What does this fold into?
Amino acid sequence: MKKDFDVVIAGAGMVGLVTAALLAQSPCRKQLKITLVDAGKRPQFRAGNDIALRVSAISRGSLSILQDVGVWQQIMSQRAGPYRRMRVWDSRESVEGPDTLRFDAADFAVPELGFIVENVLIQHALLQRLDDLDVDMRFETPIAHTSLGGEEHRIDIQLQAGSSISADLLIGADGAASLVRESAGISVRTWDYPQSAFVTHVMPERSHQETAWQRFLNEGPLAFLPLQDGRISVVWSTTPEKADRAMSASDADLAAMLEQASDEVLGKLEAVGPRGSFPLRSQHAQDYVMPGLALVGDAAHAVHPLAGQGANLGIADAAALVTVVSEAVLRGEYPGDLPTLRRYERRRKGANQTMLLFIDALNRLFLSNSAAIAGLRGTGMRLFNQSGPIQRRAVQVALGINV
Ligand SMILES: Cc1cc2nc3c(=O)[nH]c(=O)nc-3n(C[C@H](O)[C@H](O)[C@H](O)COP(=O)(O)OP(=O)(O)OC[C@H]3O[C@@H](n4cnc5c(N)ncnc54)[C@H](O)[C@@H]3O)c2cc1C
It folds into this structure.
């Protein structure tokens, strides 16, 4: 029986949409019949609406991929707040202290280190691009199950509505709880944290100075990310109890909690935005690929938000996967061939693992109450600060500058 599609992308989050857009404008497009399916409704962005709760720090590496797919101008013309500086410090010290990590765009000869952008705006711009590229998309179409390894070069995707579709390659971009991954029997290594991320927007008394601020407290880091309208997006990784308290606090009490946690680095705060709380864990899939299947984004790896890397790693996965698939198709191979997909896995899994372990170690280092560990992290920050080329390289990799 004839297959329905060459490639099916499961998931219209930022990563699935970038994957679809890259594939749809790749040189092999004419040879591929593509569809994208998502369980939810089509994401909507309206310029007149308040800035959405979920925003991401988008690195220069991701920015350049979003430029390649032709959506960055549209995102910029709507609203994206640049961050040109970062300040990272330990709660036992002052932000003015010598051990504070200071990164400035000027030191890297770039105009900004990255941008803070609403997730839904990135999705909206990509959806419009996919409309222009005439890509088939199906919303409110949850996948219920997948069957791999049946007929050669074929994967069957059963939809919850009862019908099924078949393809040479299924790309699982269906998030951290990926059904595609689970259905294929791919296990994950999981790191649980005694933390939730409390998220909101607040208006600071003093200007945020287009700077991303991060203060490491004993229960987890508190990040203030600069928004375009002068507010800051707060990402506070803390105990689930404190996150619950922040969720239900009055505006005045919430402002007081955040002023104390931030050591008033930006002065008094006014609680003015929506609120949300997300349990935190990291996880990494044992395999990214099987014959006819590849995982990208949170389906492959979920990381603690302290380094603002989750979406950025996923967007880099999308670019790597589309490159190897496109090259293979142009050589006349099937997009779901295992040797092709292994090339993608080799390009991304090690790099993602390094970032996962680094972020996990950083989180645990600061979570510790031990005096010895506290001394160690002070020394570590000082050494990192003085490490010159090592510090420079680490920041370049994390921010996708010149890499
Ligand atoms: C508090 C917080 C702050 C963060 N800050 C940053 C940051 O600053 N920078 C950064 O890079 N990252 C950040 N991240 C991480 C980032 O949000 C995620 O890595 C990113 O959103 C993952 O995108 P995705 O497309 O892989 O998955 P998702 O966004 O989870 O999308 C998955 C999609 O799959 C669909 N789906 C699920 N199941 C099915 C099914 N059975 N059938 C069909 N469709 C299905 C869903 O409807 C959804 O649309 C943060 C995360 C948190 C929690």
About this structure: The mean pLDDT is 92. The radius of gyration is 22 Å.
